[in-house]
Design brief:
The chain is mainly α. The chain folds into two domains: about 80 residues, Rna Polymerase Sigma Factor, Chain: A (Orthogonal Bundle), CATH 1.10.1740; about 90 residues, Orthogonal Bundle (Arc Repressor Mutant, subunit A), CATH 1.10.10. Helix content is about 75%, strand content about 0%. Helix 1 packs across helix 2.
Length: about 180
Amino acid sequence: MDDRRIIELFFARDEQAIAETWDKYSGLIKRIAVNLLGNSADADECVNDALLAVWNNIPPARPDSLKAYLGGIARNKALMSFRRRTAKKRSNGLELSLSELDECVPSPNNTEESADLAELAGLLNDWLRSLPDRDSMLFIRRYWYGDSVKELSKETGETANRLSQRLFYLRKKLREFLDERGVTV
C-alpha cells in the first residue's frame, strides 16, 4: 500500500494502518533495532514500541516520508532501550559506533546547544548530499542504521579494514565540513 494511503488510515484512526505499516516496514524497524541492540527479543519490543509511537503521533504529525519517520522512531526507541540496558554494563557494538562520531559531531549539553540541533541536522544532510552515493550509503548504514563494519564488508565485498579506513576518512571530512561552518566539537 502507498505510504500516503497508510498515513490517511492513521488520520482516520483505522487500525488497518498498523497492519499495513507492519507488513511494509516491520523488517526495516527490526533491522535497525537488532543492529543497535544486538538482541532479537529487545528488537521485537522496539518494533512494537515504534508502531505504538506512530499510532500516537499520527495525527497530528504528517510525515513526508513514512519510512524515514518510522526509522527515526525505531532508532530513538532502540537507543533509549540501549541506554537503559547499559546503565549498569557496557556494550561495544553501538557504543563503538557512537563513539566514532564523538570526535566529529557535538552532543547537546544544554538548551542552547539543543536548539542548534536542527541547524546541525541540516548541515549534516547537506554534507551527506554532497557525497558520492556510495559514501553516503556507507555513512548512513554505519551511523544511522548501526550496521557493523563486518556486515558492510560482506555486502560490499570490500575488506573490513578498507571500509574502516573509508569511514575514518568520511568522519574526518565531516569534521572539516562542520569546522568550516563554525560548528566546533
